Each structure stands twice: as C-alpha cells, then as structure tokens.
Automatic annotation (TrEMBL):
Record domain SsuA/THI5-like: where: 46-252
Subcellular location as annotated: Periplasm
Keyword Protein biosynthesis assigned: no
Record's keyword terms, sorted: Signal
Chief subcellular location: periplasm
Species lineage: Bacteria, Pseudomonadati, Pseudomonadota, Betaproteobacteria, Burkholderiales
Cross-referenced PROSITE patterns: TAT
Protein family: Belongs to the bacterial solute-binding protein SsuA/TauA family.
Signal peptide: 1-25
Name of the protein: ABC transporter substrate-binding protein
Organism name: Candidimonas nitroreducens
GO cellular component: periplasmic space
C-alpha cells in the first residue's frame, strides 16, 4: 500500500471514530402522516428542502390525509409511525392512542366561521336553530364550540352540526345546502372564490390564549417507547426548519409556495401564515418547561372529554412528553 493511500485511509478511519454518530449511523426510514395545511406541514417541508432530515439520518415517507381523525386511525392501525396534525392531538392521546412530543405552532386564527347573510345569518344570534357544517372533533369544531358558548349559544341545543369531511362541508356551504360552515385555512380560499357574498363571522384569534389550539406531532405508542432516538432527531430537523421559518418568513413562504403550494397564490399563503402564531425553538422551550403547552393541550382535551364522552381520559401531563424536546433545546 502506498504511504499516501495509507495516510488517507487512516485519517478517514480516525474521523469516523471521532464522529461515530455522523459517520456510522444508519439511515432510519419513517412513515410520517400529515395534513396539507401550512400550520401543520410548513416546518416539515422546509426541513425536507433544506436537507435537514437527511442530516439527521432520517428518510421520511410522507403520507397525506384529509383530517386528523384519519391520521390517528392510520397510526393506531400501524401504517404510520408519527404524524403532524391540529387539535385532534388532544383527542386520541387522551384515549391512550399516541404520545405528543413536538408542537408546531398555535392555530391563532386558522379556524374560521363563514356564513351566508342572504340565508338569514348576519350575526352570531342568527345562528340559533340553524345548521352548521364542519368536521366533528377537529380544530374547526373546537373553535366553533368555544365561539358559540362565548355568544350565549348552546352548541348541543341551539344549533345543528352537520358532520362532514372538510372538503364536503365547504362544498355544502358553497352550494348553500347549509347557511354556515366552521372551517380551517386554506379551505377559506374556495369559499372566498366561489361565494363572494359569504361573510366571515369570526375566527379563533378572539379566544386566544384562553382557548389556544396547538398543532404538533405525535408518535405511535410502541414507536415512542422504542425509538426516542428517532423522535429526538425529528425534533433536531424541525428546530432548524422552524427557526429558519420564523427568522425568514418571506423567503420561506416563497419557497413553500413554489414547491408545495403551487395552487395557492402567495398572498393567500401569507394570509395563512399570519393566521398562525409561531415561536422560535428557544421560546417554545420556555413554554414546554413552565407547563404552558401542557395547559393548552389540556384545555382542548377537556372539550373532547365533554363532546366525545371520553371516560378515564389520560391527562395532557401524561400523554405529552416535553422531555425529548428539552433534551434538544434547553429552556
């Protein structure tokens, strides 16, 4: 062996021993379920385009779903390992299905109520006795329940909820089969485009922080138990994408619109961005550590316990594990 070749090989071997985590770690394939809405998948796609998953030796297979309910059903069935979703992550984990380990953002104004004034609904009071389409058990439903109660309307007695998948709920509203729809962005876009006479009666921002709804990630129970190392690497990739997003929103949104949301005009995507409340990874760490995130999750769990009659529910303090995140990002 030539001396130069030997020295080169020796140096490579020394580097591998010095950095075993980088040089020798195998790539883990993971199945990630998600909803295609900015508040849920923005950081995920930025991590993909910036090569952050690859840096963490992760090879995600992304599987899109229409609702968080479908996501958790798939994860409970074993077809995905982790998921990113909205308010539903305060539902199924409270039933013992999944562990929450990462928060994306707050659905500050992503949930909205739209009405048809020409169908007799111009104010909140006009909703009494009316049908409202939405997807039960989702972010939109949680917001609707909070908003109705705030205006003295009993969600169980004074209105009739028409439970539909969100695309169907929006279609029903546009066709005027119902006078009102509780939705989440970007489903407001077809409403604005096809129902110019429709009016947005309110959004979730009016009830923050009392009724804050957080988006985030959950893992299948067995995956959480056995692969916390993977969850930690998911968080590391997410942190880089999140902080880039928070620090460079215009650049990040232009990139996301070009690669992931080509059918959504950039002004509409910016509107979605401003409807969510984001924090840097360090700011999130403080909210993990002081119990704020746990409190927000529990508020939504309380809704599900009442609405879905969940018996022996698991509290957020048990189904949410902040320790993995706080191992990566110090408060």
């Amino acid at each position: 062996m030539k001396r130069r070749t030997f020295i080169s090989l020796a140096a490579t071997g020394a580097a591998a021993m010095a950095l075993p985590g980088l040089a020798l770690a195998k790539t883990d394939k993971i199945k990630v379920g998600y909803l295609h809405t900015l508040a849920v998948d923005g950081q995920m796609w930025l991590a993909e385009s910036q090569g952050l998953w690859k840096q963490q030796n992760l090879e995600p297979e992304f599987v899109q779903f229409q609702t968080g309910l479908e996501l958790f059903q798939a994860m409970s069935g074993g077809s995905i390992d982790v998921l990113s979703t909205g308010a539903v992550m305060s539902n199924f984990p409270a039933r013992g299905q999944g562990k929450v380990f990462l928060i994306n953002d707050i659905e500050f104004a992503t949930a909205q109520l739209w009405v048809h004034p020409d169908m007799g609904v111009k104010t909140w009071a006009d909703l009494k006795g009316k049908k409202i389409s939405t997807t039960a058990g989702t972010t939109a439903h949680v917001f609707l329940d909070t908003a109705l109660k705030a205006h003295g309307i009993d969600p169980k007695k004074d209105i009739q909820i028409v439970n539909q998948r969100m695309p169907d709920a929006v279609t029903a509203f546009i066709s005027k089969a119902v006078p009102a729809v509780a939705l989440w962005v970007p489903f407001n876009i077809p409403v604005k485009n096809k129902s110019p006479g429709a009016k947005m009666l309110g959004d979730a921002s009016a009830y923050y922080p009392k009724a804050a709804i957080v988006d985030g990630w959950a893992a299948r129970n067995d995956f959480y138990d056995k692969r916390k190392d993977v969850l930690e690497r998911i968080i590391r990739a997410w942190v880089g994408a999140n902080d880039y997003f928070v620090g460079n929103p215009d650049k990040a949104l232009a990139e996301l619109q070009s690669k992931r949301y080509p059918n959504v005009p950039l002004p509409d995507l910016k509107e979605q961005f401003h409807a969510q409340k984001m924090f840097t990874s360090k700011e999130w760490a403080k909210r993990y550590a002081d119990g704020t995130v746990t409190k927000w999750l529990q508020q939504v769990t309380d809704f599900f316990v009442d609405f879905a009659h969940i018996s022996n529910s698991v509290p957020a303090s048990k189904y949410f594990d902040p320790s993995i995140y706080l191992k990566v990002v110090k408060a």
